[in-house]
Amino acid sequence: MGEIKRLPTKGRMRSTFRRAPTDQSRGSSAGLHGETRLSKSEDPSLSLNTRVTGQVRECTLADGRARITVALVTANALGFAQSIEEIITNEFDFAGTATILGAKAVDVVAGAAPAKGPVKFTTSFTIEEPGAPLPDFLDVVNTVEYAPASLVFESKTIGRLPDGQRAFLEIEQVATQAEGADWTYSVETVEIVIPGR
Asked: Pairing state of beta strands 3-6 and 183-194?
């Protein structure tokens, strides 16, 4: 069993969801897939071979609203960890705060070794009516407008600590939001595991 270092959890994700046109009588679903690069250049060496696949589903509810479910799986996602204490000391200058595992995208473009791994993400939320525009995920997590809602996020990033030691960054979050209520996290874990310790 490796040594486990527990870190306080704080962070946000940015995603905009898109879906296929809706058949309002039955709901709809759309497949998603994509590839990301660290730079807009055509230099293939800047690709991490990140692949995103998934689905967006819409289901009409009895009250006229619609339930949206998004499930995404990412391979070779870039990941890194920073110290909350250092971020606070640096007045929330995320770009200017060093990492404690892996490297930020700008540093990878400059030649730093990337930390990568798989990510699974599932969320569900409610919108006013079938076919209504889908929100940015930050709006889902920062308001009560899309409740009831839920999310499950799991990732395992394989990278190096500043001293060169190999380590894993493991994140798991499970949360729900009832109508008119704040998010409740039943699982919220961020750990750096050093193999062999």
From this structure: antiparallel
Report residue 110: phi and psi, to 5°.
-80, 0
**Cβ atoms of residues 137 and 123 within 8 Å:** yes
pTM: 0.77
Q: Which residues contact 15 (CB under 8 A, 6 or more apart)?
A: 136, 137
13: how many CB neighbours lie within 10 A of its CB?
Answer: 12
| Sequence-separated (6 or more) residues with CB below 8 Å from residue 31 | 53, 54, 55
* Sign for the pseudo-dihedral over CA of 106, 107, 113, 118: negative
> For residues 62-76, b (16+ Cβ closer than 10 Å) or e, as one string?
eeebbbbbbbbbbeb
pLDDT tens by residue, 72-99: 999 999 999 999 999 999 999 998 999 9
Question: Which pLDDT belongs to residue 36?
Answer: 53
What pLDDT was estimated at residue 127? Answer: 95
Nearest to 157 by CA among 102, 93, 99: 102
Bridge partners of residue 42, in order along the sequence: none
Could you tell me what percentage of the chain is helix, strand and coil, using 3-state DSSP and rounding each to the nearest 5? 10, 50, 40
Compute the distance between CA of residue 59 and CA of residue 61 in angstroms, rounded to an integer.
Answer: 6
